[in-house]
């Protein structure tokens, strides 16, 4: 089972979502925006002490790019300090419809528990999927907002090795 949200979270839902995610997460990820901004630099600077690894990949949770557009994903320790930083700076999980401006912050946040992705987003594709790590967490996510229950995509549920490198799964374009 997988949960799917397709609309932006309200401020209250965003706060509840972060609370639940950080309750279960030990690591979270952010994909670097293709266009650097002052806001992005400030956020990444505040998160720098919690940086675990930088990964460059052509595939990251439901998103594929050619090698010339390789993605840069940063993994950070999930803790009360990083929760506050994200809460203060990061509040959009989806692009605004017909948005023409460039992204100003890192995007596509993901949360991991014991090296296994349990929530992943693709901002520009309007995707937010949750693989609830426990039955208790499933109930907590369901209380945040309206979720659709959809068929799980196991090949997209990223699993990290102990050194935080992703274990490759089979995928195709």
General description of the model:
With 173 residues, the protein is an alpha+beta fold. It has one domain (2-156). It has 4 helices and 10 strands; from the N terminus they run E-H-E-H-E-E-E-E-H-E-E-E-H-E. The strands form 2 sheets. The chain has an 8-stranded antiparallel beta sheet, with helices on one face. Strands 4-5 form a two-stranded antiparallel sheet.
- Counted beta strands: 10
Strand residue percentage: 25-35%
**Terminal residue distance:** 24 Å
Mean of all residue-level pLDDT scores = 85
Give the H and E element order.
Answer: EHEHEEEEHEEEHE
Total helices: the number is 4
- Poorly predicted spans: 97-102
**Tally of separate domains:** 1
**Rg, please?**
15 Å
Instruction: Give the spatial strand order of the biggest sheet.
Output: 3-6-2-7-8-9-1-10
Shape: globular
Helix/strand/pairing category: alpha+beta
